Amino acid sequence: MRVLTYSDYDEMSAAAARMIASRIAQLPEPVLGLATGSTPIGMYSELARIHDEEGLDFSRTTTFNLDEYWGLAPDDPRSYKWFMKGHLFSRVNLDPARTHVPRGVDVDPDAECQRYERLIEESGGIDLQVLGIGMNGHIGFNEPGADPNSRTRLVRLAQQTVDVNRAKGGLDSLPGYALSMGIGTIMEAKEILLLANGEGKAEIIRRALRGPVTRDVPASLLQTHPNVVCMLDKPAAKLLDLP
User: What pLDDT digit, counting tens, does each position of 5-56 carry?
Assistant: First the structure.
């Protein structure tokens, strides 16, 4: 695992965007795994700027989002499809048919999860998976205790996760369930980019990167992946004793 630190959130976001832009430029048919939440917003904004000002072409890129709330329609402002449309999909030349987010309504959840896994497989697998990290160490919506071999499935969210996401979004309510890529699915990505910022993430970053590998801290399982880059701002890295 390579750990890279940056002076602030903006610098971290710009570096993450450059990494993704380089993969899009290098690969003939890039497949990206994308994350939501507050952490990648700056990265998506910078990718849109690179597209506008430097001509980064997304037309050959396929995307798969990690998760979606169960019970929210794509046009619900609380949904992750809505989030991605506002922060990236509508701002670059991605082909809508190549942008995939689990469907949270009007489907059988088991069938939808199996469909999603098939789509990933048919695309050739994920080249670069972007991850954030939850306050309890979750990646995607894989909460503490999740099976390291799990696939895309319907999961019950920890109350802490629901409360944190609701507060960050200024929302009155959020569902308690979601469809999420499993840890096994995430770990099959050829390359993983883990992002974290802010002093509030420092302790869980220490546990994930320096603590034992345990399903109690799902992000710690990334220590066993052969190709992970972790980008942190200085507050998030403060407990790592880096040179």
Answer: 999 999 999 999 999 999 999 999 999 999 999 999 999 999 999 999 999 9
Question: Is-catalytic flag, 65?
Answer: no
Can you give the residue range of the structural domain that contains 150? 2-192+202-231
Q: Is the pTM of the predicted complex or chain greater than 0.90?
A: yes
Asked, for residue 243, whether it belongs to a domain, the answer is no
Is residue 241 in a domain? no
Q: Is residue 129 part of a domain?
A: yes
Tell me if 239 is assigned to some domain: no
**Could you tell me if 39 and 13 are in contact, meaning their C-beta atoms sit under 8 angstroms apart?**
no
For position 90, which CATH number holds? Answer: 3.40.50.1360
Give the SS3 label for residue 102: coil
* Catalytic choice (46, 68, 143, 233): 143
How many folded domains does the chain comprise? 1
Token readout for 185 is 């699915």
| Active-site residue, from 67, 68, 112, 233 | 67
Q: Is 143 considered catalytic here?
A: yes
Whether residue 57 lies in the annotated active site: no
